[in-house]
Amino acid sequence: MSGRAPFAEPVLVFDIETIPDLDGGRRILGLDSMGDAEVWAAMQSLRRAEKGSDFMPGHLQRVVAISVALRHQDGFKCWSIGDETAEEGELIQRFFDGIEKYRPILVSWNGGGFDLPVLHYRALVHGCTAPRYWDTGHFDREAKWDNYLGRYQFRHTDLMDVLALYTGRQNAPLNEIALLLGFPGKLGMDGSKVFDAYRAGDLAGIRAYCETDVLNTWLVYLRFELMRGRLTHEQHEREEARVREFLEASDAAHWSEFSDGWLSA
């Protein structure tokens, strides 16, 4: 990439936020007559007995936010898909519609281990379609060797998995890697607080938190591209400057906080 303009292909960084799927748990456990609090207590009890934690498996996660950053042509932006009233199925379909439109390089942190499997299950639930995402050569012959499903390909780059050399033994948290590199890391929330924030009606806070995770991931990805020789130092500096311009152009509180944290790092 260093010999030509960087990011000739679109790059889409993504992250999701989820809560337990109480309706799904109610259906699976046959608890039709029970309210949400009782269903959640039953789901927690069974999960703790099975795994020692109440973190639900992917098929019992409900997506409440999908945030993305798109680097395309000469532009960069970061936002959350849909608005706060959008239903889960709409969020997921719009995410896959973006892949259909751009066929971008996807970038995530643990996307192969969590985000994408959750999106697969929830897309099934809602009848979403994603032909270009799932294509391994049926529609496009080139996709046989360049697709989103191959773990060791870079059409989807799961940074956590790649940097740990696909072993799982050296997986690192995004927050810690971001802080090591001088980026702000997580601001104001973490994944364990999302369900409580959702029940308190703070969907805006969840979306802002998800967006900051995406931007941290993008900045780590830029350093990764520098490391593997696909960006020169000058190009890397220009890409970081592009992010700073994005932050400066926004009056959103979470972007101001992000900018302040980056400057003070």
Mean pLDDT: 94
Order of helices and strands: EHHEEHEHHEHHHHHH
CATH-defined fold name = Nucleotidyltransferase, domain 5
Name of the CATH first level: Alpha Beta
Tell me the Rg in angstroms.
19 Å
**Strand order across the largest sheet:** 3-2-1-4-5
- Low-pLDDT windows of residues: none
How many structural domains does the protein architecture include?
A: 1
Helical content (DSSP H or I, runs of 4+): 40-55%
What secondary-structure arrangement, pairings included, does this model have?
Elements: E1 11-20, H1 22-29, H2 36-51, E2 61-72, E3 75-80, H3 88-102, E4 105-108, H4 111-126, H5 131-134, E5 156-158, H6 159-163, H7 174-180, H8 194-199, H9 203-227, H10 233-248, H11 253-264
Parallel strand pairs: 1-4, 4-5
Antiparallel strand pairs: 1-2, 2-3
Characterise the protein shown here.
The protein has eleven helices and five strands. It has helices at 22-29, 36-51, 88-102, 111-126, 131-134, 159-163, 174-180, 194-199, 203-227, 233-248, 253-264; strands at residues 11-20, 61-72, 75-80, 105-108, 156-158. Strands 3-2-1-4-5 form a five-stranded mixed β-sheet, with helices on both faces. It is globular, with a radius of gyration of 19 Å.
